[in-house]
Amino acid sequence: MFETLEDWRDELERTKGNVKYKAVATNEGYRVSEKLPLYFVVPICISEESILKYEGRGIPIWCWSCHNGAALLKMSAFPKEQDDSTSQMQKAFLDGICKTISKPPYELLKMDDLSSSLPSLQDIQTAYTRFKQLFLIDNSTDFWATDVKWFSLLESTNWLEIIRRVLKKAIEVVECLEIQHTNVLLIEESATDLCCVISSLVQVMMDSYSRTKSGFQSLIQKEWVIGGHGFLDRCNHLHKTEKEEAPVFLLLLNCVWQLVQQYPPAFEFTETYLTVLSDSLYVPIFSTFFFNSQHQRDTNTSGESLKTQSGPFRFLTVWDWSVQFDPKAQAFLNNPLYAEKPKPDKSQRKTARFKVRYDVDGSPHY
Q1: 162 vs 131, 184, 243, 251, 293, CA distance in Å?
Q2: What is the pLDDT of residues 14-39, one digit of tens each?
Q3: d(CA 293, CA 287)
Q4: Which of 145, 206, 232, 318 could form an S-S bond across to 288 if both were Cys, CB 3.0 to 4.6 Å?
Q5: Could you tell me whether strands 307-308 and 311-312 are parallel, antiparallel, or unpaired per DSSP bridges?
Q6: Dihedrals φ, ψ of 109, to 5°?
């Protein structure tokens, strides 16, 4: 669940990242930032003073380590609108951090600003709204009118194009990690939206554990729930304003669905699993996908206000599928065709990754 320091250390050990990276408790009591989790992982060379200096901004946070030692990192960018002196200080700080983690024992570093290489959250929301409109048909006349030009209407929503671009970006990161043996640093304003999408897809593609049910749950907990994705705002749970709304998590599930269709035996879970996971976003009895951060969840799931006549109120976790489904229904979440990947010998270890297939017209097909 990545709620303890030990969970992070276990993940470091599992991925062999504990040689160059360390789990830190600097944010205990949320003294660094309320947006950061209590515990996270940074390069060993990063000092506590550096983490505290700008509330965690400009600090490379570890996501995952490849078998060859290359690592996937993410960083919350500094605000762009700053006075000159502050901007220069932040730039000098960032340059120092990047130089430090580019030296041995660390691999070469590639920085990727996702805000310039991927669609904006507003573009994603607009495309998804258009996509949904295709299915909101009032009568048979409208149905047949849209049926004739269905594929052109689908293409015009731009939703599938966004999925294609996101998958392509993930494959670029995979190639940097695996083929070029290069560390990749994903940069975003908050590092809690598109960073979550790309880092999750890279791990699904490269790490067979992330393609199991327990592994995928662990991945979502690490990158999204504890990682600080703003579920409350992005899903507009309180229906206060649509300004922050964007289907970022649904975009991830759509991308994973594409991979499940292409490589069914590689996944322990089914498209039904992905569907009920997306449905669970809007089931209010679960705390998993309800809050913007670990701090917000902690402050709203404890205290006198949540006590009832029968005792303290307890939020449920979405991962306990028995709350929603009986054992017979839960069987539909498991893929009977799943072929567990055998562990290769260390001398012959190679990471299986997803390749791009090409259609007859030469266009890439993921």
Answers
A1: 12, 21, 20, 9, 26
A2: 999 989 999 999 999 999 999 999 99
A3: 11
A4: 318
A5: antiparallel
A6: -120, 130
Give the CA dihedral 164, 168, 170, 173, nearest 10 degrees.
-170
Contact status, residue 199 vs residue 72, Cβ threshold 8 Å: yes
CA separation, residue 130 to residues 134, 153, 163, 282 (Å): 7, 9, 14, 21
Q: In whole angstroms, what is the distance from residue 296 CA to residue 166 CA?
A: 29
CA–chain centroid gap for 56, Å, is: 19
User: How many Cβ atoms from other residues are within 10 Å of residue 350's Cβ?
Assistant: 9
| Secondary structure (3-state) at 57 | coil
| Residues composing the chain | 366
Q: Could you give the CA distance from residue 288 to residue 1 in angstroms, rounded to a whole number?
A: 11
Rounded-to-integer distance, Cα 359 and Cα 82, Å: 47
Percentage of residues in the chain having pLDDT higher than 70: 90
Exposure letters 256-288 (e unless 16+ CB within 10 A, then b) = bebbbeeeeebbbbbbebbebbbebbeeeebbb
**Tens-place pLDDT, residues 324-340:** 999 999 999 999 999 88
3-class secondary structure, 65: strand
pTM of structure: 0.89
Residue whose tokens read 């599930």: 253
DSSP tag of 108: P
What is the DSSP code string of 136-188? Answer: ---SHHHHHHHHHTHHHHHHHT-HHHHHHHHHHHHHHHHHHHHTS--EEEEEE
Tokens of 207: 């790490």
> For residue 75, what are the β-bridge partners?
187
The helix (H) or strand (E) run that includes residue 115 is: helix 114-117
pLDDT band at 146 (very low <50, low <70, confident <90, very high): confident
With contact defined as beta carbons under 8 Å apart, do 293 and 226 qualify? no
Chain mean position to CA 289: 13
Closest CA to 124 of 231, 280, 234, 278: 234
